[in-house]
């Protein structure tokens, strides 16, 4: 009988290959559940989960909340905007206050890298990292790999290129860890200013020519240009970025094989990818969103079963 | 098997075969052509029995078509977080509607009745059956935690709590045999 090797999901870095396999197999069952006419199971009816978001999010927050509700957990939501955080309360105090209301699990997004790890050392609850600064976004990487597995049968041995702002992207880092763990070949592609200096040490290739990267890959994961994180100018203009690193339909049609296009959302249509690419048959962007709920159900179910 | 203190054969392959034919006939008597009846094997061990009964009904009693589904009850169990282990799910495969159908749950051993309680909840996700019956190969009498009884039973057994009934199937375990194991 298998179970997760961890008590918290803080990052892909802390998982092993078997954990990922177990999460995927469990997600398969939940995917069947969420396609029934009654999409809910009673497993977690004695679990309370707090979604604590210190940073804006639409899709991740909705996806987590839906996953929790489909498992029959009780859910409370907390956004930093309307809270005592603004009055100067510390993170540990905020979370401990919430936990004294008998909460079993905390799903947290925070702008500081390592916030989840810090919290897991100081509070008694299972922690799920829903994004910590530019560090990790483990559930996104899991649903990305799960979507590749669904479309191509397996992740191992596939060539995956991650395009865009690698420097500020937690999605990129978690994806690199997850893909490497499953035996995929990974390259990153983007303007030199947005590629971390020692990225090769993670075992990934670096490509600055998008065309070459697309010709090499089976899957292209197009990251969003996160203007809110770009404190200085990393490239001259958005138009120039698009000319060099944007994917359009003509480019895809010019390749000698049909590659899979992914995007973690939200899309800047016409910047990273054009509309006809985002809506094409090759794009699995909406499958990623659907799979996100199944993956998060699996993660929460598996972690909750370790709460004693 | 070396760590078991003792085990005895409860039913041999020949006896199992006779019982399966009797159960098939009893089902036939109540459901005739199975046009409004579906068999649901309860995962993980009930599916072998359900498949075997379907095979007998089709091949030996000329039933043309039987809807056979597999239901996994893991997410409906009432012992989540109560044991040491994570409860691992199995595949649910029900590709027909159970609305207004006569549903027959098929499981190998009926013990506390808790699995069937979970199955009764789980099946609701697939519609509102006209009625639900229960078929079980081994009915462990006197060990029920819930008021659940089978409509069709292969063999009734008085096993005490630290005894275990193990049903083996040819397609999965190499031979048809049922052991009573003393742990």
UniProtKB/TrEMBL annotation, chain A:
Key words of the record? Pyrimidine biosynthesis, Transferase
User: What is one process in the GO biological process aspect for this record?
Assistant: 'de novo' pyrimidine nucleobase biosynthetic process
Protein residues bound to L-aspartate: 87, 170, 224
- Reactions listed under catalytic activity: carbamoyl phosphate + L-aspartate = N-carbamoyl-L-aspartate + phosphate + H(+)
Pathway(s) the chain acts in: Pyrimidine metabolism; UMP biosynthesis via de novo pathway; (S)-dihydroorotate from bicarbonate: step 2/3
Domain Aspartate/ornithine carbamoyltransferase carbamoyl-P binding, which positions?
7-150
**GO terms for molecular function, please?**
amino acid binding; aspartate carbamoyltransferase activity
Indicate yes or no for the key word Transferase: yes
The family database entries (HAMAP family) matched by this protein are listed as: Asp_carb_tr
Q: How does it assemble?
A: Heterododecamer (2C3:3R2) of six catalytic PyrB chains organized as two trimers (C3), and six regulatory PyrI chains organized as three dimers (R2).
Task: Kindly give the PANTHER family that the UniProt entry links to this protein.
Answer: ASPARTATE CARBAMOYLTRANSFERASE (PTHR45753:SF6), ORNITHINE CARBAMOYLTRANSFERASE, MITOCHONDRIAL (PTHR45753)
Protein's name in the database:
Aspartate carbamoyltransferase
The species this protein belongs to is Kriegella aquimaris
Instruction: Identify the gene encoding this protein.
Output: pyrB
From TrEMBL, chain B:
Q: Which ranges of the sequence are coiled-coil? A: none
Q: Which GO terms describe its molecular function?
A: glycosyltransferase activity
- Domain Phosphoribosyltransferase, by residue range, is 8-164
Entries under Pfam families matching the protein: Pribosyltran
Q: Which Gene3D superfamilies match?
A: 3.40.50.2020
Determine the domain of life of the protein's source.
Bacteria
The record ties this protein, via InterPro entries, to: PRTase-like (IPR029057), PRTase_dom (IPR000836), PyrR_bifunctional (IPR050137)
Q: Which UniProt keywords apply?
A: Glycosyltransferase, Transferase
Q: Which PANTHER family match?
A: BIFUNCTIONAL PROTEIN PYRR
Check the record and name the NCBIfam families matching this protein: PRK05205.1-5 (NF003549)
Write the protein's name.
Pyrimidine operon attenuation protein / uracil phosphoribosyltransferase
């Amino acid at each position: 009988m298998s179970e997760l090797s961890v008590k918290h999901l803080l990052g892909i870095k802390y998982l092993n290959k078997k954990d990922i396999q177990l999460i995927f197999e469990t997600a398969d069952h939940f995917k069947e559940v969420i396609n029934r006419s009654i999409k809910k199971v009673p497993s977690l009816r004695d679990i309370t989960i707090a979604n604590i978001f210190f940073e804006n999010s639409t899709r991740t927050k909705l996806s987590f909340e839906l996953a929790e509700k489909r498992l029959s957990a009780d859910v409370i939501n907390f956004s930093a905007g309307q809270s005592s955080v603004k009055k100067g309360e510390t993170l540990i105090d905020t979370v401990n206050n919430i936990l004294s209301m008998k909460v079993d699990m905390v799903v947290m997004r925070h702008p500081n890298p390592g916030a989840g790890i810090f919290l897991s050392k100081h509070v008694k609850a299972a922690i799920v990292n829903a994004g910590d600064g530019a560090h990790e976004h483990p559930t996104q990487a899991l649903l990305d790999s799960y979507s590749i597995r669904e479309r191509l049968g397996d992740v191992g041995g596939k060539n995956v290129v991650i395009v865009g702002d690698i420097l500020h992207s937690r999605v990129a880092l978690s994806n690199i860890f997850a893909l490497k763990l499953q035996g995929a070949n990974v390259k990153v592609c983007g303007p030199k200013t947005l590629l971390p200096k020692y990225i090769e040490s993670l075992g990934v290739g670096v490509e600055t020519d998008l065309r070459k990267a697309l010709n090499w890959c089976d899957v292209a994961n197009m990251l969003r240009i996160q203007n809110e994180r770009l404190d200085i100018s990393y490239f001259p203009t958005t138009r120039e970025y698009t000319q060099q690193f944007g994917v359009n339909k003509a480019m895809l049609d010019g390749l000698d094989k049909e590659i899979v296009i992914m995007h973690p959302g939200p899309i800047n249509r016409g910047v990273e990818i054009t509309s006809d690419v985002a809506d094409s048959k090759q794009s699995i962007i909406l499958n990623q969103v659907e799979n996100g709920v199944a993956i998060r159900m699996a993660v929460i179910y598996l972690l909750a079963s370790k709460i004693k | 098997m070396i760590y078991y203190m003792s085990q005895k054969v409860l039913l041999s392959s020949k006896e199992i075969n006779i019982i399966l034919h009797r159960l098939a006939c009893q089902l036939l008597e109540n459901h005739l052509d199975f046009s409004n009846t579906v068999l649901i094997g309860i995962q993980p061990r009930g599916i072998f029995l359900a498949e075997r009964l379907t095979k007998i009904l089709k091949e030996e009693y000329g039933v043309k078509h039987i809807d056979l589904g597999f239901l996994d009850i893991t997410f409906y169990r009432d012992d989540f977080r109560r044991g040491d282990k994570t409860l691992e799910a199995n595949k649910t495969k029900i590709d027909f509607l159970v609305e207004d159908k006569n549903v027959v749950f098929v499981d190998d051993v009926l013990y506390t009745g808790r699995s069937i309680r979970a199955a009764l909840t789980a099946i609701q996700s697939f519609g509102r059956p006209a009625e639900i019956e229960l078929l079980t190969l081994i009915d462990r009498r006197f060990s029920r935690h819930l008021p659940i009884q089978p409509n069709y039973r292969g063999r009734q057994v008085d096993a005490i709590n630290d005894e275990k009934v193990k049903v083996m199937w040819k397609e999965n375990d190499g031979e048809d045999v049922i052991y009573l194991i003393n742990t």
